[in-house]
Structures are given as structure tokens and as C-alpha cells.
Amino acid sequence: MGDSSAVPAAEQALGILSYMARQRGPVTAAAIANALAVPRSTTYHLLAVLIRQGFVTHLSERRRYGLGVSALELGTGYARQEPLAQLGRPLVETLARTAGANAHLAVMHGTDVLYIVEERPRQAPRLVSGLGVRLPAHLTASGRAMLSAMPTEQFWALYPDREMLVERTGRGPRTVAELRDWLRTARARGYATEVSEITQGLVSVGLPVLDHLGWPTAAIALTFPEADGRALDEVADEIRPASQELSRRIGGVPARLVHRDVTSRP
User: What's an example GO BP annotation here (predicted)?
Assistant: First the structure.
């Protein structure tokens, strides 16, 4: 049998993660200890373990703790499974049919996006962003849509440095500073775009799907040939009902109700 003494520690660690997930932003160790009735020394010990495992990040300048990349991956791991795909597939199918373009549903996986639903009408071009494919989030409309709606601390946990970002076709942001500019534009428009950054000649428009805290759980996007000459605002209007309906189905809020600036330092 396992060591039963480890059970309370496991429960307390899960309690910390659950508490942090319900907050709007990073919290102090004292707030965690008080909320969970856990000794402060124990709280610091558990936080240190969670930091080493990537589930928590320490914002030393603010003396606060926020959720780390591993917590995000755990959440998207759930999202990648059937509940979100089952809820979103009918919406994506309808969108692809009515828009006459490739439609897909994607979730974040670290700094990548993972496509969990894709619908391709007849005659539509085959995409590299097929079911189960992962692509750099900063190069895709789906990824940018989610990044633009992401809590500030989560964005900086994903992109802590100003290192160069990968590119595929010679287009798109090459540094975190440039990415921040792209996200400002996406937030101002209410949707994100990508033009020939994944595949030459193809354009994508994406909108986020938000949970009950207003955090991005997924994104829905349409992809079509640049030669179609579609107005991007009109494409976004086609996607918006599907993204808002999926947000509603998961108990979330419409993207228009969220006002967040991921481009400033926490």
C-alpha cells in the first residue's frame, strides 16, 4: 500500500491549484493559506513543489503566485478530449457549410495550438492544420485569438523572454515584442488573422471561446484562399455566433464582455 501520509499533502496541493484557478489573477501565499486553512510554512513548501513541476509560477516582484504552463496544459488536456470536441463539432460543421470554407476548433498546448475539430467543404483546399496537428500559436489566427484574450500573467508565463520566434514562410512576428503588437491589433478588432504565415496564399480568421472566468479555452477559425478577396470583418461576423454559442455551452461569457491587455507586464 502507498504511504497514507502523502494523501493530505496531495489534497492540499490540489486545493491550492483549485483555489488559484478560481481567482482573477495571481495571489499571495498568505491568501492561499488563509483560504484553505493550511499553515503558512506548509503552503510555502507545497508552492515550491508546484513551481518545480511547472504548475505554479512565482512573480517575485509582486510577491504573488500564478498558475504555470503545466496547469494550462492540464486544462487543455481536458479540452482536447471529447467534451469540448463534442460540443463544438456541430457548430464547426455548420460554420464550414454556411461559410463555404475550412472551419476548425483548436486549443492551446503550451505555446502551440492543437486542432481538435476540422471540417472541410468540398473543393476547399486541404490544410496542414488538420485534426491532431500542432502549430506555433503565434503564427495562427486561432492561437493569436486565444493569446489576445489570455490573462497577462499567463501570457508572460508562456513567453517570458524576448527570444526569437519561429517562422514558416518569412512572415509574422519574430520576437515577443512584435507578437504583442499583433495581439493589440487582434484585441482592438475583436478577432485575429493570419495571412500566408502557415501556408502561402491562405488566410485565416479566428475568435476565442471563453470560459466562466473570461479565459480562452479554445478558438474557432475559418481558413480560405487569399484570392477569394473576402472582407475579414465579414468573416469574423460569420464566426462570432459559433464562438459565442460554444462559450455559452461551456458556461462561459461572450468575448465582447472581456477587456484584457496581455501586452503589459504583470
Answer: negative regulation of DNA-templated transcription
DSSP H or E run through 204: strand 202-210
Q: Which residues on neighbouring strands pair with residue 218, listed in sequence order?
A: 209
- Please give the Cα distance from 8 to 27 (Å, whole number): 22
All domains in the chain, ordered by first residue: 6-67 (1.10.10.10), 72-257 (3.30.450.40)
Q: 10-residue block means of pLDDT along the chain (266 residues)?
A: 59 90 87 93 93 89 86 66 83 95 91 90 65 85 95 84 74 87 92 92 95 89 93 96 93 60 52
pTM of the model: 0.68
Backbone torsions φ then ψ of 97, nearest 5 degrees = -70, -45
Tell the burial category of 1 from Cβ atoms under 10 Å away from its Cβ (0-12, 13-18, 19+): exposed
User: Which of 205, 136, 216 is closest to 172 using CA atoms?
Assistant: 136
